[in-house]
Structures are given as C-alpha cells and as structure tokens.
Amino acid sequence: MAGLTFGARVTMTTMDSDAVDAEVGRVGDALAERIGALARQAAAVIRREIPFYATTDVVSEEQTTLTIERNVRFVADALRSSSPFDVTPAVETGASRAQVGVPLPAVMHAYRVTMALVWREIIAFTEADPPVSRAALIAATRRLWDANDVFTDAMAAAHREQVTQMVLDQETERAALTEHLLQGRIDTDQSLWEIAELLRIPTRGPYLVIAATVPTVGRAPLPGIDNRLRALGVHSAWRLLPDQQIGIVYTPSEAVRSQVIDLLRRTATTRVGVSAPFSELQSTPQALRFARVALAGPGEAVTVFDGSALGVTVASAPEAVIELARNMLGGLLDLAEDDAGPLFETFRAWEANGGNVAATAAGLFCHPNTVRHRLRRIEQLTGRSTSAPREVAELCVAFEAATRFRLRRD
C-alpha cells in the first residue's frame, strides 16, 4: 500500500469542507463494503479473547456476528453523514446482552475489539491509492470517536437500565411468591418446589418465619436484611406489607439460627417475632401465625416463639382462647397493674416450676406463704382450683393467652 500523502494541496487550509466531507464519506463507503468480513473477523477475535464469549453459549457466534455487523454499519453511517447519530443499534445491543446475562464489562470489551479492527481498516484504506488527505483523516477520526463515545454511552445506559428493570421485576416476582408461600396459596408439591427454586431457598428445612412491625407504612423495619443474611451464607425471602415485614429464612443448624437471631437483634428497629423451627414448606402459614403471636406477646425486642404445646394451642385458635381467657381471668384483668402483676408473675413461675411452691418462692425471692397466698387469690378471682388438674390446665391456657396477647379488660 502507498504511504499517506500530505501535500499542500490537501491541507486543512487549502481544502474546503465539502471536499473533506466527500473524502470522509468515501471512507464510510469503503467500510460499508467490508462489513461482512469485518464482522466475521471481529467475532473470531471476541470468541478467542473474551472468556465470557468463549465459554458460554448464551450468545451464539451467529448472534455475535449480526450484532457486530449492526455496530460497524453504525460507524460507516456516521462517516457517510453529518446527521445526528442513530443510537438504536447501541440501545438494542446493550439491552439484549443484559437480558441474557452478559456482564457490561464483557460487552464493552467486545465493542472495543470491534472498534480496534474498524480503526485498522480505516487506516489501511487511507493508505490506498488514491490516498485520503490529512484533513479528511483528521475529520474521519474525529467523527469515528464521537460516534464511539455516543454508542458506548447509549449501550452502557441501556444495559444498566435493563439490568435494573430485571432486578425490579425479579424482586417483585420474589415478593409475590413469598406472599403466596406465607399465605399457603400453593396448589401442588410441584408448585411448592418451583417456588422454592425461584426464591432460591432449599426445598426442605429447617426454616424460621420472621415478622417485624413496620415503623411507618412502606419503611422496612429490617433494612437490608436479605443482603445481610446472604453475607452470612443464609438463604431467605422477604415481603414488605403495610404493617409488617415478613420473611422465611433457611436455618440448617442451631448455630445458624443463633446467628440469625443475633443479626435480628442488631438490625431491628421495631419489635420482631420469630417462629419455632419447622421442616416443611407446607407449614409456612402456621409458622407465620406463630411468629405473629411472638410479635404480639410480651417484650420489646426480638421474641422467639417457644414451640411448646401450650403455646401452639393458644396460637392455633387465638380468637377462642382469648375469649376463654377474658372470661376466666376477668377479675384479674380488672385489677390495677401493681396488684395484677405479682399474681401473673407468681402463677407463671409456679407453672414453670411444675407446681412446686418452694422452688417458685426461691425463684421469686419471696416466702413460700406469699406464693400460697397469691395462688389463693387467683383461685378466688377466677373460680378455678390450683389443685384440680383440669382446672389447672384451663388456667395455664388462659394465662398463656393473657401473656402472649397482653390482654387487658379494655
């Protein structure tokens, strides 16, 4: 090929703009004629040099070649016209690659490979006979890199926008599926398995269900909890409701459960209720009820449902049990807090100590006669005996409900 000719007759000062534009257009025409060959060459280099394209079939060689052809045509059109750039090919490239999961760095690398080959082609053409003037080469270079900047900006913006939309769509779908799981609106085992796969949680537990009160509508009480749990290697799925943030967490061991509870205590900005561990996803709605019972119970921070038979009984039929407790404990609930508090505390301690008065007194740091006196007052106020097994069972259920649901006469 002949060398570049830079004579006085082709300097910027002696050539008018129409002549320069004509030469730049000739470069664009020559590039357009080479689109097919350039695309195949660039596709081969991209497959060889970029690991993502070399190791995955997400984007086929045919798709890669077609995309390169559009991109080179974009450059050729930019050289042949001074009109504003049409960034449609850039937007389509960025969005389509994001849609199939090609990382933006890999897309940008592929485009740089293509542009390097285009630039070499332009240089080769400018050295041909007849040569392209220095003024035209400068103008073509400026137009080329202007087009490059516009293309890459549009492509990157389209890629980011598509990724953002996909994340939003995915999170919306995950939130909806989480709610379906928590509410028990699942038809078959197959559907349950599919939902677990989509939520990225194992299909068999143990799990925990967590419910946290929102401080204000739309504001999460456990900000960033999904990412924080993921950093611990813990899978979870969450749903933000107007009054609560609820989630299901996979906790394969006691150590992981402890980590999760500790994280909740550090993270929570409001009250949190946690269910007892359970193994089957079909049990998720019941576990949500238990988490909400724990949330409604006594305490001001994170409360874990104990999973006791008594607690399960109360949580399984809350309306009926609450009505029973109000009727049975009406006299106690009418007392002032200072008077009712020691009676509630004494009965729960007596219950926990298996009806042993001495152990109860030791735990409460009082005299055994004080415990006996308080138990007699409870008998008088409720009409139930603490020595009759059936009536003791009724009292245990009533006190459990009163404690968990923080019952008051009003």
From TrEMBL:
Residues 37-174 form the RsbT co-antagonist protein RsbRD N-terminal domain. Residues 184-295 form the CdaR GGDEF-like domain. Residues 343-401 form the PucR C-terminal helix-turn-helix domain. Pfam families: GGDEF_2, HTH_30, RsbRD_N. It comes from the Bacteria. Signal peptide: none annotated. Belongs to the CdaR family. This is Helix-turn-helix domain-containing protein.
